[in-house]
Each structure stands twice: as structure tokens, then as C-alpha cells.
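As a warm-up, study this chain.
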Amino acid sequence: MRRIGVTRRSVSGIYAFRGETAIPFESTLERDFIIRKEFCLTVLEVIPQPIQIPFVAGNGRTYAYTPDFLVYYRLDNMIYGEYPKPILVEVKPRAEWKQHWREWLPKWKAAYRYAKEQGWEFHIHDESRIRDQVLENIRFLDRYKRSQFPIKETRCVIESIQQMGGTPFYYILAKHFMGICKAEGVAHIWHLLATRQLDCDISLPLNDFTELWVPTYE
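Now compare it with the structure written out below.
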């Protein structure tokens, strides 16, 4: 594992993944990647700098390459052939990889081969795959995450959605929060989504027509 410290080019630190695991990051882009994976209920674990992979550079010398993350997914009751493969990830700003891709290609090829041998995949993630609608939605929901609401109301909302198998935001709002309670109801529903007691297609803009359901992952 590389030693992560303060750099002049980026912001480094430690992210408390789901309040349990301390994951170091070397840039805000890496931090945002972790935030996206934390929100995704199918993600089981994110391992920072998981492996050193030897590769031969263009100068003929052998070096060791350490990818940024290894992401494991939940299997649960999936059929064997549908198991999501663990993903070995390099997080790199688009401007950097476009400038240096020829120089970095040997280590990335080595990572691709290594991942394939392990039954994994190897991906490179830049801003286009991290700072998108998903991250925008997660940041929007974050303001509701630490709010508190009556447990009884929460239970009623969740049971209603569970019984229907899924329902649009506007319907559950009208059913449980009428009149002067509407503003609090909006905040309550977003809170349940932020704390993963409800789920939705987070890749779409959040609005009155957002389809909500009760997640099967815990």
C-alpha cells in the first residue's frame, strides 16, 4: 500500500465508509468515488490500494503498479452466472490520463490481465463516471441524512411502499403528509432515501415522479 499524505496537487484524507471502515483517499475525485460506492446498496466493500502488480515499462525496467481500489459486490440470492464481478479501479482525472495514457498503458494492461486472471474487471474512472447525476443526487440527499423524524411515521411510510412494491414520490407524499405537513413530509421521504431505508434509480433526477421502493439489501 502506498503511504498517503498531504499533497500540493490534491486533497488527501480519510473517509469513514458507512461509519465503519476508514478508507484513505488521495484526491477529491477519489473521495467522490468512495461516496458513490457507499450509497450503492449492492456494494459490499471498497478496499483501498489492494494489490501491487508488476509491469514492464517502456524503458524495459520492471515496476510495481498499485490500483486505487478494489470493489466487492453483494451476491445474496443471485444465480451464479449473474454474480457481479469485483472491480479493480484506477481513479484518474480525464486531463491526466489523456496526457499520459501512452506512458501508463503498460501498467494498465498489466492490471487488466491480472484482474482477468482473478475473475475481476479493471476499470478507469474519471470525472465522467464519478461526478454525474448520481453524485449530484447523493449530495442533495446528504442535507437530509442527519434529520430526525417520528419512528411511527417512518414505519407507516415504509410499510405503505412495501405493500405497493413501489410508488412515486408524489403519491406517498399525498397519502401520508397533507396540508401543513407537506414540507416536513418532503424532508422525511428524502431522509429515508438518504439513510437507505428507501431506494430509487439514483441515476435519474430526483423529483415528484421519482419511483421509490423498499430495498432488499441491508
